Amino acid sequence: MGTIEIADMMKALRGERAQAQKQLAKLDKAISVLRELSGTNSAPSPDGKRHVMSAAARRKIGKAQKLRWAKVRAARKAKA
């Protein structure tokens, strides 16, 4: 009789395992959708390193952004 109980228990555990895997798949899909909606990829890089931007690159990007905003302000001023 003990082997029948063990077999039933194993069957129940396999069923619970399958349900847990389905839940994990749903959670993974929800996380990926939220990442796409937020426009960021918050997953760490595989090697764990972060990209370091040089000071020159930051200056270049900052200068380009200031020029873009200057064009926007000039366009607003021209309309007014």
Structure, explained:
The chain is mostly helical. The chain has one domain. 78% of the residues lie in helices and 0% in strands. The chain is elongated and about 85 Å long. 0% of the residues are buried.
Key terms for this structure?
0% strand, elongated
**Share of helix among residues?**
over 70%
Number of strands: 0
> Low-confidence segments, ≥5 residues, pLDDT <50?
none
Largest sheet: none
Overall shape:
elongated
Mean pLDDT: 88
- The Cα radius of gyration reads 27 Å
Distance between the termini: 90 Å
Q: What fraction strand?
A: under 5%
Query: In total, how many domains does the architecture comprise?
Result: 1
List the secondary-structure elements in sequence, H or E: HH
- Structural class, by secondary structure, is mainly alpha
**Number of helices in the DSSP assignment:** 2
Secondary structure blueprint with pairings:
Blueprint: H1 2-38, H2 55-79
What's the gist of this structure?
With 80 residues, the protein is an all-alpha fold. It has 2 helices and no strands.
